Structure formats: C-alpha cells, structure tokens
Amino acid sequence: MVSLSSGSAGSIAALFLAFALGFLATTLWLRFRLAHSEAQTALREAEIERLRDEIWQARESEERYRGLIEGQNDLILRRDPNDRIVYANPAFLEAAGSDEPVTGRCFSLKSIHTGEVLLTADGARSFDQEIETGRGTRWISWLETMVREPDGRMLRQSVGRDITERRRSEEALAGAQRKAEAASAAKSRFLATVSHELRTPLSGITGMADLLLDTGLTPEQATYARAVKSSGESLLFLIDEILDFSKIESGKLELVQENFDLTALVEGVAELLAPRAQGKGIEIASFIAPRTPRLLRGDLARLRQILLNLAGNAVKFTTQGGVGITVSISAEGRTVFKVTDTGEGISTNRQARIFEEFEHGEGTGAGAGLGLAISRRLAEMMGGSLGVDSAPGEGATFTADIPLVAVKGEPQPQRCFPAGSRALVVARSPFEAPYLCEKLRELGFDVDQAVDASHGLAVLAASPAPLLLVADAAIGEEAARALAGRATEAGTTLRIMLLSPFERRQFGPPAAFGFDSYLVKPIRERSLRSRLVEPIALAPSGNSRSLDAKRTVGHSPFRVLLAEDDEVNALLATRLLEREGAEVDRHHDGLSALEAAVSAMEGKGPAYNFALLDIRMPGLDGHEVARRIRKEEARLRHPPLRLVALTANALQEDRAMALAAGFDVFLVKPVVREDLSRLFAPDTAKSKVA
Fold first, then answer.
1. Same domain? 573 vs 682
2. Do residues 295 and 397 both lie within one domain?
3. What is the pLDDT at residue 196?
4. What pLDDT is stored for residue 14 in this prediction?
5. Does residue 664 fall inside a structural domain?
6. What pLDDT is attached to residue 306?
7. By residue range, what is the domain housing residue 626?
C-alpha cells in the first residue's frame, strides 16, 4: 500500500472540495439558466397571447366600424391626392348605380345642380348637390374633410346625407309663401279697387245729403236726409277700418313723425264726437293735466285714430252720463291718454277678447269689430300699450300709454288771475264740470262747484261774491236767470253760460238771462281764456252767414279747373266750389282738362287759380295730366299751377304717387266742404300733399 503523507492528503482533500464546489456552482448556474429560460419563454408566450388578443380586438373593431360605415344611409367615400377613389360605402355605390367597380377610378356622381360651397374655420367644405341616381333625382348635403391614413397618406373624405325630403318641404313652404304673398298682394289690390269703387258713390251720397240739408227742408225731410248722410259716413268708416287692418296685417302701415299740438288733437276729437253724444243726451269733455307738454312729436293721424276709436266706442255704449278724455304724463315721462265713460261696463271675461279682430262690444253687432284691435296694434307700433279697466255697471276706462317726444320751446299756460280770485261753477255733469273747475284753478281761481241752482244760490248767500259765475244751461231757463240776477246783485263781474249747439238755438241770446257771454260744450281751453282774459259781448245771433251765401274771394273771379268724369261727384264739387265764390270750368276727361290748362298758360283764356283733377279718368288719368302740365309749365316758363288730386284711393302709396306726379294737395273722397274751403286759404298755396 502506498502511504500518503498528511500534506498530500490535505492537498487531495482541498482539490476534492474545490471540485465539489465547482460542480455545485455549475449545477446551480445551469438550473438558474434553465429557470430563466423557462420564465422568458412564459413571458414571450404571454406577450404573444396579449398581442393576439389585441389583433383580434382590432380586427373585431375594424369589422364593427366597417359594418357601421357600410350600413349607413349616408354616402361615404375617400379619395387620394390624385382624386382616385380608395374607398366607397354601399350607399355611395347604390347612388352611383354603376356595375363596374369605382375603387381606383376618378369617378363622380352625375350632378344636376351644385349649390354654394361654404368653408369652415377648420378647412371643411360643405355644399348641397342635386344628383341623378337610380331612384331619380336626389339632393345630397356634402361635408368634405381631410383625414390621415395609418401609412401617413392624406385622403379627402366626403360624407353626403340625403336631404331630398327636407328640400322638397322647403320648396313646398317657399311655394306656399309665394302663393300667400301673391294672395296678399291680390287682396291689397282688391281692397284698393273696392275702396275706390265704394268711395266714389259714397262721395255722392254723403255730399248730396249735405247739400240737401242746406236747402229748405221740412223737419221730416231733414231727418231722412241726416239718416242718409249718417249711413254713408258709417259705410265710409267701415271701409277705412278694413283698409287699416289690411295694411297692419301686411306690414305696410308706416308711422310718421311730426310736431303736433296736443290740445288741438284732444279737443278736436271731443268736438267731432260732441254732436253724436249730445244727440244721445250725454256729454263729452276733455282735460289735459297741468305740466303736460302741449307740443309733441309723433304720428298725429294715428293718435287721432286711436282716440276716435276709444271715444267713439265710449259714446256708442253710454246711454246716460258722459265720456271724458284726459291726458297726463306718467312718472316715466310717457303720455297717458285715458277715455272714461259711465256706460254699463265690460265683464271680466270680455275684457281681453274685445281687443281681438272682429270682436264686438257687448250688446251690439255694429261695425266690423276692428276698431279696438287696430288701436292696440297702433299703440304697440308706437312702443306703447292699450288696456282697459272696467266692471259691470261701473263704466270703463281705456288707457293708452304711449312714449311721445316733447318739443322744447313751447309756451306753457300761465295763471291769469291773482290769488284769491273766486269762481262758482253751477253744473251737474260727470266730466265737463269737474274738468272746467280744474281748468279754472290752473288759471288762478279758487273754485266752488254747485250741482244745481238751489245749491248755487246757497253758495252765493254764504260766501263773498265770486269774480266769475259759470252756469250750465241744462239747469233750466228760470234757474239760470235767478242765478245770474243774484250773482249780479252780489257784485259778480263775469257771467258765462254753458250751451250745447242745440241749447244755443233753444235759449237764444244769453244776455236775455243776465249772462255776459257763452261757451259751447265741449269747452275749448282757448275759448275759455278768450272769454276770461278778454271778455267780449255775445255776438248777435244774425251775424252768421247763410250756408248758401258765396264767399268773397278777392275782387277778381276765382277760377277752378275741375276734371271729373263722374256726374254726381262733378255736380257735388261744382256746387261746393261755387259756394266758396269760385267759377268752375268742368271737363269730363283728362285730355280736355290738359288742353284747357295749356291754353290758359299760353294766354288763350283766363288763368286758373288751381286745378282739381280726379285720378281715375278715361283717356289720360290724373297722374299723367299732372305730369304733362308740369312739363308744359317748364317749357313755357309759366308759374306753377296749384294741382289738387281728387281720388277714392286712400292708401299711403297713392299719396306718394300723387306727390311724384306733381300734385300739391291730396283729397280723398268723399270730399267735404271743409276740405274745399281750405283750398281758398292763402297758406294752402305753400302746402304739399296732405
């Protein structure tokens, strides 16, 4: 046996240990590598699985997207920069109606009409296009945008929606609107024609009735003649209402702005309605509150129309008491018109309906039922409002609140009597007496009001003598005489009697009852001031001229050229002009009137002071006659002849046409005496179409 030394044995052990450790390390490393490889393999398999899931989801999403796109009714396609189609959905292919593939081709739908192209801020284009398809013509609304493909290419995407039904609806609506506008225009022409055709005979009816009333008629005959005239005026009012409503509905009514006198407007309305009110045994009066601007700017004619409608209705539906018209300024500076009556009132359920078209007041069927509807529309057009406050049995108050501009520089009414001046008003009335008391206070009086003669006598006995006594003739002759005598004894220096036109004829001169003068109801502010500031004696009752007396117009004959083809209207105008003192040269048509005017300008006959020309005449109409007269004046260098248009057409465009033709004054049939009388006043020579 070989014996080993201890040193050799240790070396061998060390080598063996090193080998063992190395083997162990190698084994551990190999196992680590194997485990790492297995882990990497597992990770790769998981990643592959994840990628497979994503690819599947992407394919599923793409299929869903493609299904949605292809299932859309909208037309969808994409084009490359060379305008070749790279994608088209089935809806587009169906509209194209082509059996050949369109992908890769420069293909377009057959266009019939293409509308305006609109560009948005982001560069998109939109337009409507009418195309020819297998289903006939269709309208497509296109939206074109630029899209980027995954490979980076930029494609033009077009999406078209079928709007055929919408376009057809729009075209049907536009056609209906055109038909409605044509119908409205036809209605306007019809109303204008009917207005002319009705006004012409109405002019003869009312005018001849007026002339008839000026002749010596028996009371019974005068009653019949007044009924004829009243009926004609009612028909004329109805025509005007229908025309106004038609103009408002069509948007053709235009407001004008002009300066006007508020006092003249309000008192004129009250005075115009006074005969109707006094004929029913009721009163009508007006009052303008202190500090209310008297010179305003607005549409005078339309304001008068509103007040006439409101006050006229109030008179119509009031059987006892009266109607009061007041004007004041609101805290906001708006002009407030109020018309109050003592009628039966309006029930609550009727108050809103009375402003609707073709609605009548309770208990009546008269008129067209348009007056209040027109008045409210006019008030709203002026920026204001119109309402009513009423209760059954308590009358009604209509309030028009309208913004009007006050014109500066107007004179305000001044106090004319010193403090302590006393006045006594003896009258029983719901409006006239209270309004008169307020007017007297504005002039500086301390006012007492008595409701009857006994009350007035008691006031005279218990108080110092008043400076002014005002007594209503309605208290009776004996009572008025007793009051005037007692006031005279007490030292009253001014004694005025209130009379309606009927009472004026019945009572005779107020001096016979102890009064100095009289005031006609409804009282005008100017008349009241003239009686108090400059007292005048009552004029003799015989100083008024006869209605048949001719006016003296200068020393030379006043010649008028009249062109009117209607015999009745020509006779009416001739008689009215002759009563003003004019010599009338009447012609039946425009051509003969033109020849007469030119002959006068050439010195072949006496000159005319003015020409009254009917617009509608055979041959040359009034407009053409006016134009040719103006041309001849320019050719002959002759001073212009004052031309007056006489027509039954009352629309604003008719006035404009008359002005353009060369007329100076515009008169609407039926012509009344006052209209012709104004033609003889010197200031009308400067007026234009009125």
1. yes
2. yes
3. 66
4. 72
5. yes
6. 92
7. 558-686
CA angle 321, 285, 211 (to 5 degrees): 100
Q: Are 681 and 551 in contact (CB under 8 A)?
A: no
The continuous run of DSSP H or E covering 287 comes out as strand 283-288
- What CATH number is associated with residue 84? 3.30.450.20
**pTM of the full predicted structure?**
0.58
| Low pLDDT (below 50) residues in the chain | 1-2, 4, 360, 362-368, 536-555, 683-689
- Together in a domain, 537 and 662: no
601: closest CA among 643, 624, 629, 625?
Answer: 629
Convert the pLDDT of each residue in 550-591 to its tens digit: 444 444 578 999 998 888 888 888 888 888 888 999 999 999
* Residue at 609 is within a domain: yes
Is the preceding peptide bond at 670 cis, omega within 30 degrees of 0?
yes
pLDDT of residue 427: 93
Peptide bond into 522 cis (omega under 30): yes
Determine whether 461 is exposed, middle or buried from the number of CB atoms within 10 Å of its CB (0-12, 13-18, 19+): exposed
The predicted structure's pLDDT at residue 385: 95
Give yes or no: residues 155 and 93 share one domain.
yes
pLDDT at 472 (0 to 100)? 93
Rg for the chain, CA atoms, rounded: 48
Contacts with 10 (C-beta within 8 Å, 6 or more apart), sequence order: none
Segments in 325-471 forming alpha helices (H): 348-351, 371-381, 432-443, 453-462
Q: By the 8 A CB rule, do 407 and 429 touch?
A: no
Q: Is the same domain home to 140 and 262?
A: no
Instruction: Please state the domain count of the chain.
Output: 5
Helix, strand, or coil (residue 318)? coil
562 with 653, same domain?
Answer: yes
| Residue pLDDT, tens place only, 335-357 | 999 999 999 998 888 887 888 75
Residue with tokens 């490889």: 37
Cα–Cα distance for residue pair 270/277, rounded to 1 Å: 9
CATH number for the domain including 326? 3.30.565.10
Residue 683: per-residue pLDDT:
45
Quick one: pLDDT at residue 367? 41
pLDDT of residue 352: 75
- Domain assignment present for 246: no
Q: Which two tokens stand for residue 532?
A: 């108090």
In this structure, are 521 and 618 located in the same domain?
A: no
Which of 406, 430, 451 corresponds to the end of one domain?
406
Question: By CB neighbour count within 10 A (0-12 exposed, 13-18 middle, 19+ buried), where does 433 fall?
Answer: buried
Report if residue 33 sits inside a domain.
yes
Identify the CATH number of the domain in which residue 434 sits: 3.40.50.2300
Q: How many CB atoms lie within 10 A of CB 573?
A: 25
Give burial (CB, 10 Å; 0-12/13-18/19+) of 199. buried
Report the DSSP pairing between strands 295-298 and 283-288. unpaired
Q: Which residue type is seen at 555?
A: H
Looking at beta carbons, which pairs linking 446-451 to residues 24 or more positions away fall under 8 Å? 446/420, 446/421, 446/422, 447/422, 447/423, 448/422, 448/423, 448/424, 449/424, 449/425, 450/424, 450/425, 450/426, 451/426, 451/427
- CA distances 600 to 188, 564, 586, 611, 626, Å, are 39, 19, 14, 12, 15
Q: Which of 403, 374, 385, 206 is nearest to 296 (CA)?
A: 403
Is 319 found in the same domain as 266? yes
